[in-house]
Amino acid sequence: MSPTCFEALDRHVIGGAADRVALIAPGESFTYARLLEEVAAFGGVLRHCGIAPGDRVVVALPAVPEAVVAVLACARIGATHEVVEGAEADALAGPLKVLVTASSESYLASAIDSAEHPPDVVLVKQRDGAPWPLVEGRDYDWDVVLRAGRTDPAAWLAGAEVSPYDERTAAWLGPLVDGETLALP
Q1: Is the Cβ–Cβ distance between 73 and 145 less than 8 Å?
Q2: CA neighbor of 9 nearest in space, from 173, 152, 151
Q3: Is the pLDDT of residue 65 over 90?
Q4: Cα torsion 14, 18, 20, 24: sign
């Protein structure tokens, strides 16, 4: 079976649907080609952060395009992802290399500081009106690292094991695998 990311993106781009809209969110849309570029770039970022197949990445983002990108990038490189929201800060328990979050998820800042095993790297999507003060050497701005990731994008990893999907992740991936448009609220 092909990896989820290949099924959701690559095969549609290869099959001639590169310019079809894959994802719509308030104020923006992504074609299959653009979404694939973002996912491959973020996969490159995760690899640069030391993520290897089977490693755990926690994605603590609201239902925004970056959440879909992060989940698909994990699938692309064979990492295990865990999507958390709200008060699920207990997802930070145990060793964790990378946490992907948004500045709007400020409740995580104190959870990170008090975690027995804080993440090695925190990748933060800065959201309007909710700045996240970056901790030097640990926290990195999503937009900055994504530019770097575009210089070394991740190819899909054939035979990669993919993590089990929760209902939210399955709801995101289903339309993409079917070649449809995913609409985020």
Answers
A1: no
A2: 173
A3: yes
A4: positive
- Looking at the 3D structure of the chain, how many domains does it have? 1
> What distances in angstroms separate CA 91 from CA 1, 136, 148, one per listed residue?
29, 23, 28
| pLDDT (0 to 100) of residue 168 | 67
pLDDT of residue 105: 80
State the CATH number of the domain containing residue 103.
3.40.50.980
Domain that holds residue 91: 4-183
The pair of structure tokens assigned to 184 is 């985020």
Rounded Cα gap, residues 142 and 77, in angstroms: 18
Measured CA to CA, the distance from residue 45 to residue 144 in angstroms comes to 10
